[in-house]
Fold these 2 entries.
Entry 1:
Amino acid sequence: MTKSIPQEKQQRAEKLHEILNHANYQYYVLDTPDLPDAEYDRCLRELQALESEYPALITSDSPTQRVGAEPLAAFTQIRHEMPMLSLDNAFNDEEMEDFDRRIRDRLNSSEPVEYACEPKLDGIAVSLLYRNGILERAATRGDGTVGEDITQNVRTIYSVPLKLLAEDVPALLEVRGEIYMPKAGFNALNERAREVGEKGFVNPRNAAAGSLRQLDSRITAQRPLELCVYSVGVVEGGELPERHSAVLELLNRWGFRINSEMAVAKNIGECLEYYRSLGEKRAQLPYDIDGIVFKVNSIPLQRRLGFVARAPRWATAYKFPAQEEMTRLLDVEFQVGRTGAVTPVARLEPVFVGGVTVSNATLHNRDEIARLGVKVGDTVIIRRAGDVIPQVVSVVESRRPDDARDIEFPAHCPVCDSPVEATPGEAVARCSGGLICSAQRKQAIKHFASRKALDIDGLGDKIVDQLVDEGLLNSVSGLYHLSLEPLMALERMGEKSAQNLLDALEKSKSTTLPKFLYALGIREVGEATARNLARHFGDLDHLMQADSEALQQVEDVGPVVAHYVAEFFEQPHNLEEIEALKQAGIHWKAEVQEEGSQPLAGQTWVLTGKLETLSRSEAKDYLQRLGAKVAGSVSANTHTVVAGPGAGSKLNKARELELPILDEEALMEMLREQGIEI
Ligand code: JCF
């Protein structure tokens, strides 16, 4: 017999549903959390306690039901009442213009057509059915006609409302969207998998598919999945707006996440502009997209246009260049980096991927080669996303030729022949040659001259290679002993460029302590750490005398970094180099350390949109000098947002949160007031 539920318990459970559903919506759909985590946990625990005392309180839409349920034996097949369509594709501007022309021809209209534009998420298409506002069933798209019942799995996704947030919803509402795994969640999931010796997933789409295909929804519950909705299917007992964009806004108010990049274009020209601007943002988006979906925004017009075969006439997907392609691994070579790390590099049959032709990809290290199980001669899948170095993501084992051969890691450095040593606990193998190894020397010099270090204009990689190969340059300090004649003798170097290089070298002598520290190329000391070290110790001598314990007092410096720093300053040849650099005239102003020099300490700033006078890295540098942290995304913790032309979702979010927003001019004025010379 079930206990009867006292009315006040029933009411309390309902109140807790409301609090938790609202908090979920704020957090997972709107990205603006408004309930502290601890309070959320208290409410959830209170509800769990109530439900365990009165099991009849457990309803399918209870916020406690997101943890997963008993495993299924198999997925049930579900026939979609209204078929789930596929999309036609366009691959260039002309095909988009054709799409628009066909629509206007069919409508017998010369007026521009309004389109709804949104990124095409690379995930799994799903259909969710709500009866009287309660999630009843979720299914995969499958072949468009028949899919699989994944209700249990979908319930575990926090951005899926279990109950809609309004009373006046249609009696029956089918919502369609894409379930996907954001890049950050994917990387974290793979990292965890690899830590325990598992393979991990090849890309976020496969990870999303694999997570939804779990018969045990408790596993799905552990996976960072999200839902973004893009249209409705069956609707009964209710009316929806006549514009697609308004339907999506309504769905958003009812509790669904919609794409924050969603926009309306007045005509096909604006569609092409949108495509280009999203293309530029593609690598920075927190999820993978493979194109842009354009839909005629008027639903009456959509009805007039109808369908061809399995795709609507009123929509198309303008694809971006694929980020993954197949090619053949021709050979593996080993490169030696600045710190001696020996990196296997895949030589590939050239392939067009992510918008460029790729003929090399990194294989990272020995562990990665073992994980991939790759051999020379294999057909492999290459991924190039944004400006990241192309990666080998997997091997197509079914295409392995009989003569495929194992990749052998060299025991000796391919450049200087010193033994290659594996460091215990580290995946990287290193050439033990140190600065005898010309590869390490070249990289050390290139790093020293790079933009964020001493910024020596005109000292390109090819020039460094030649200078080292010809024995004209052996160390960074040697740069300051170069003279005109030998420089002019180099390939492609006239008197003018040789003189320019000497001038740049002269100019580089005046630097800052953080840049100098960064330029030294101490392991694990990037720009931020160099800045923290400089700020903490104030001058180089204090830093050089610091032991590991003293070094660990510096912000963000742990035992590993402290060890590398201390070790660097213990080595006589490093001390000689530093002395030689000072002798050559390298100098910097003392770090200003007094309190007032960090007026933005503790503040987090976000830069978005285009900056026209300052470069992004300059703006960041100045803000950091004043003590600010510069972050990539806007949250309630953001202090100020600097927005330039083209700013999009971050600016909108800043407005929603009512954060201070500066344009570039106001930023520069603030910087000047703080004594920064621009
Ligand atoms: O994001 C997507 N993958 C996506 C797929 C977005 C859409 O607006 C879609 C879609 C598939 C079909 N619209 C349709 C009609």
Entry 2:
Amino acid sequence: MAPARVTSTREAADWWRDAVIYQVYPRSFADSNGDGTGDLEGIRQRLPYLRDLGVDAVWLSPFYASPQADGGYDVADYRAVDPMFGNLLDADALIRDAHALDLRIIVDLVPNHSSDQHEWFRRAVAEGPGSPLRERYHFHPGKGEDGGLPPNDWESIFGGPAWTRLPDGEWYLHLFAPEQPDLNWEHPAVADEFRSILRFWLDMGVDGFRIDVAHGMVKAEGLPDLGGSDQLKLLGTDAMPFFDQDGVHDIYRAWRLILNEYDRDRIFVAEAWTPTVERTANYVRPDELHQAFNFQYLGAPWDAAELRAIIDSSLDAMRPVGAPATWVLSNHDVTRHATRYANPPGLGTQIRTPGDRALGLRRARAATLLMLALPGSAYIYQGEELGLPDVTDLPDDLRQDPSFFRAQGQDGFRDGCRVPIPWTREGSSYGFGDGGSWLPQPAGWGELSVEAQTGVAGSTLELYRTALAVRREQPGLGDGTDVVWHDEVPTGTLRFGRSGFACTVNTTGSAVRIATPGRVLLASSPVTAGGDEFELPADTAVWWEV
Ligand code: GLC
């Protein structure tokens, strides 16, 4: 049974509308058996930490049977736990213990593609052209005289053509790595299989699903050429024949009916990269999914005017469909925001330079208070509560991101945010486990550990703990679909609020004087407030009781 914890005044079934959801990347969270890789038992043992941090739910990146060609986003068996992470009994224990602590568990579902080691694909390849199993993927003859050219001009997100040719002459489609063949969602067996997989995990007791590449499953009729070069530059801004096709919404309407058969408090979260927030809103119409990640917000620079614009457009887009907005700053696919904000704007989300670390951390802390003051649901990526920077100097020969090894792909530097997190000051892999860590942790990682920050006034960990506690206690914080802006603030600053509460943010590099809104609840860097006006330091956010 799902837990009955109610945040603020919400009905339990609506818990997700203002939930704070913590993303665990299982390989890098906690290693219970000392093999250098995190596992489900490690996560289970650390659930009390997450409960004390104050989050509502935990989203687990994939832990299914997988050759790990793309960090588990290449699934060979959707109903099995990979031995590197444990087994189904461990998954069961994790779900039960989480529920006993009033934490909900959201698992990742990867429906756009399987692993090339999935039984369907292996058999399809073995049986050769004409095998009915090939219809479950996108197998096609090539173009040109000897079929030596790919069936169309699509490029893989990870770089190179989106097609690979088999020795028997046929080509298959993979929008990501060649080890991730795209499933053909026009085939009824594919739809049936995923309905069954959903039920399998719902019966295991999970509280929801994060849907990987939720915008990708349906491809434009006839797989038309895209035309032109530099296709990847169009991602996220232009309409593409393989992303965000209207037909994908039929799949989600059918899935919602399945979810509705269970307790009414389970949810779907879409990873949908679309050209506009309005297109994203289509995924969270009342009969489809519940939430969609707000990647436009994640991509915004640390700039008051730009942040305000994207906050407004996000809320405006969600209001008509009745879904809460979501807010996210980091995940396992992008350079951690403490490092993004340490660098000049405009470098995108795959950054290779550490930048000014003190500046990045200062802004990251302020950005967190801003995010947690907004109405809607917020996502926290493991380690951001420790203020971790990205590890930008990993040796190339240790990198594992498949995109790093393919020319001119998107992504490529995602290992830097996947380095196992530090729990203790000292010891093998700083408390991650007894057997080292699958990616090397940098020197000084122990000083950022949970142990080093616990109970230390002003540490980033304590800032998160306090912010989450205040968010839970303050009536209405996180609720609703509106923010009320105060326009009488200096350029580069923001002030918004709701009854009884205000948040002020200074995104500039200099202190500004502003009117004192009330009593300080929490600040991302030290402030002295008294009198009618006060000094809001550079790159700082403050929460006020008014
Ligand atoms: C999603 C995942 C990413 C993965 C890709 C292909 O974007 O977040 O990690 O590489 O899908 O599955």
